[in-house]
Amino acid sequence: TALEKAAAIAVEKHPRLQDKTITYGTAGFRTKAEDLDHVMYRMGLLAVLASQARKATIGVMITASHNPEEDNGVKLIDTFGEMMPPVWEKYATELANTTDPGIPASLKSIIDAEKIDTSVPGNVFVAKDTRASSPSLAQAVQDGVAAIGGKSKDYGLLTTPQLHFMVCCTNTQGAYGIATEEGYYDKLTTAFKKLQTDSETKGSYSRQLYVDAANGVGAPKVKLLQGRLGDLLQLHITNDGSQGKLNHRCGADFVKVQQQGPDGLKVEPSMRCASFDGDADRIVFFYLDKQKTFHLLDGDKIATLVAGYLQELVKGSGLTLNLGLVQTAYANGSSTDFITNVMKVPVACVPTGVKHLHHRAQEFDIGVYFEANGHGTVLFSKGAREAITKQSESTSIPEEQQKLANTLANTMDVINQTVGDAISDMLLVETILARRGWDSEDWDAMYADLPNRQIKIKVKDRAVVETTDAERKTTSPAGLQEAIDKLVAGYTKGRSFVRPSGTEDVVRVYAEADTQANADELAYKVGEAVY
Ligand code: 16G
Ligand code: ZN
């Protein structure tokens, strides 16, 4: 049968040569590239089943994002560009860990559980990042797709959010955009250009942006984008992969965690800079003030900037839409305060991981979600999209309202609503800064971050740490939360939490307080309490 054939090809071409257990986590499977060949083949098989179950095209992205070059990973993308639901993560884990002869039974149980009609054509889009291991792993996925009669389309190198975009475009028959790289740049840059209404720059805004592409797939993509932006935005690209190593002392994760600029970019006080991660689904901005002190403009700052701007547009266009913001426990306490008390926008807190934020953001008419690490986007509900479009075309409202509704409509098109996207977020931030006439410092002045520190702790078993309340409190091991509460009480503006990482074998500690020294000390002491 077809399922037995899939097992035979596995044995012959993509055998499982070791029995390390691997789990489909927050960002799919992610580990050393050498351990992934059989996993990729099996994800090819699974993607076909998912495609048949959905009667839609499914995406398979090969990347390990901000991890070191030696790692790789794989993530499935559902019909409209979302993550696969938890039950499919469970299937993925089961299929990845079975023996080669166990493959048919594992596939069969998924087919039964999901009542899949295997005569439906299976269509799978595949793309990869720039890692040396990616081409052969992409081939393994395609072999898996072919092994059970599916069809795959290989997009070659794409950023993760570009593949999400392709999947969504295809499954909405073009309503979201055209499923080609051209289509992607066209949609974003056409909207961006419409939003750049002033030929002169306003206030202290400058059209120069320095982009650290983490030596990843964002580099060639942003070069293609630049060709379509003309003088509207001049991107100076460093860490473009021609010299440095992927994610090594550069990229969004390095800049965020180390709170310093990347290697390969000599930052001067007048420069506005941005760092992508290795697959360009995260972005953080940074700059040096006149005293040459480093300042990070992270996901929280982006979320605040974006929410403030959207709030103004919604109001100005005479619409009533409920706008909300979604954060995680990592959001700086000052940002949450500012958004709640000054901007008066409702804030929800969810566990780490894009799917949690995305899901919660769908409950608002306009849901802005960002992780502090720079992953985020904005979701517009169907109702909101229709209301905005209608208002932007209305002739029976004051012209000013109609104009702002039109701006809002164009803003929707700059945003990749399928997932956080460094390129799209970059264009969105630049749009807002240009319209406000702001440079980095003006933006940064919206509120002052509380000093904070993140550390990671190697433990025997990270699973002993269990959390509740969107990871803000621990329920296990016994006594840990009481110990944290006691420590936190000793610091002005102190806040700290502990959670097991979903991507590394460590426990993470976050702490913030009134001064950097206090934040460092609190993180260190809480770390000790974890042992
Ligand atoms: C993954 C998540 C990211 C999260 C990070 C946390 C997705 C697509 N990515 O990279 O959102 O911030 O994990 O890692 O969900 P941690 O669990 O190791 O702290
Ligand atoms: Zn990433």
Give the helix/strand layout.
Elements (H helix, E strand, L loop, with lengths): L1 H12 L15 E4 L4 H18 L3 E5 L8 E7 L8 H12 L5 H11 L9 E6 L5 H14 L3 E7 L2 H12 L9 H15 L12 E5 L5 H12 L4 E5 L12 H8 L14 E4 L6 E6 L5 E4 L1 H18 L6 E5 L5 H10 L4 E3 L4 H8 L4 E5 L5 E5 L1 H12 L5 H16 L7 H15 L3 H5 L7 E6 L8 E3 L4 E4 L3 H10 L5 E6 L6 E6 L3 H15 L1
Parallel strand pairs: 2-4, 4-5, 6-7, 6-8, 11-12, 11-13
Antiparallel strand pairs: 1-3, 2-3, 8-9, 9-10, 13-14, 15-19, 16-17, 18-19
The chain binds 2-acetamido-2-deoxy-6-O-phosphono-alpha-D-glucopyranose and zinc ion.
Brief write-up:
By secondary structure, the chain is α/β, with parallel strands linked by helices.
Task: Give structural notes.
- There is one protein chain.
- With 531 residues, the chain is an alpha/beta fold.
- It folds into 4 domains: 2-157, Alpha-D-Glucose-1,6-Bisphosphate, subunit A, domain 3 (Alpha-D-Glucose-1,6-Bisphosphate, Chain A, domain 3); 188-297, Alpha-D-Glucose-1,6-Bisphosphate, Chain A, domain 3 (3-Layer(aba) Sandwich), CATH 3.40.120; 299-422, Alpha-D-Glucose-1,6-Bisphosphate, Chain A, domain 3; 452-530, TATA-Binding Protein.
- Helices cover 42% and strands 18% of the residues.
- The chain contains 18 helices and 19 strands.
- The chain has a 5-stranded mixed beta sheet with strand order 1-3-2-4-5, with helices on both faces. It has a 5-stranded mixed beta sheet with strand order 7-6-8-9-10. A 4-stranded mixed beta sheet has the order 12-11-13-14, sandwiched between helices.
- Strand 16 (466-468) and strand 17 form a beta hairpin.
- Helix 2 packs parallel to helix 4 and helix 7 (181-195) packs across helix 8 (218-229).
- The radius of gyration is 23 Å and the shape is globular.
- The chain starts with a helix and ends with a helix.
- The model has no long low-confidence stretch (mean pLDDT 96).
- 2-acetamido-2-deoxy-6-O-phosphono-alpha-D-glucopyranose (16G) binds next to loops.
